[in-house]
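For practice. Supply one:
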Amino acid sequence: MSGSVSLNVTHEDAQAIDDCWNRIGIHGDKSCPLLAGHVHCRNCSVYSAAATRLLDRYALQQERHEQAAEADTDVVTRSLLMFRLGEEWLGIATRCLVEVAPLQPIHSLPHQRSRALLGVANVRGALVACLSLVELLGLDTTSTVVSGARVIPRMLIIAAQGGPVVVPVDEVEGIHAIDERTLNAAEVSGQQASAKYTRGVLQWKGRSLRWLDEEQLLSAVTRSLT
């Protein structure tokens, strides 16, 4: 359809309208007997009626879209950073995350205070304590993950009570907004879970993902540094 009635409509809408201007009118073979009197199809009542009908359809579609958008605003989500350690996928609330940084060399310390303390790493000129989430969470990373994609290890810089700490991870998938209803269901189902510092387990992109309790985890981080 062309001219002022060239609107984005569904296939059913288009088929329901007789676009005579494209067949026998100004954009067709010009055999319409009314064309001589109107000079152009846009001056014809048939064309005007079709345009009005399409505009009404368009307005209705826009109204439905706006209503759907308003309904979506009622959905409460929480932002989680998804990452991997060994074969296990985990998620942690972004509110305790400072940034995701490239992996830096870790320098061990003599007389380290805990097994979870790996040492220190240089983050933009500042020495930051580096902890092992594998140790804190009691994970088994002896098995190897085989992936066809290029995987780049990262460091998560998280805000602990005494200052930022870094934790190396095997892979970062990204930050995702998760429907709070999904998290609530995961939390209820995971209440009996024995995994350390875990609020629940949810299914995400075909994977079982451990949703970490950031308050318990940050408390354990603080204890590992004192």
Remarks:
- Residues 3-72 form one domain.
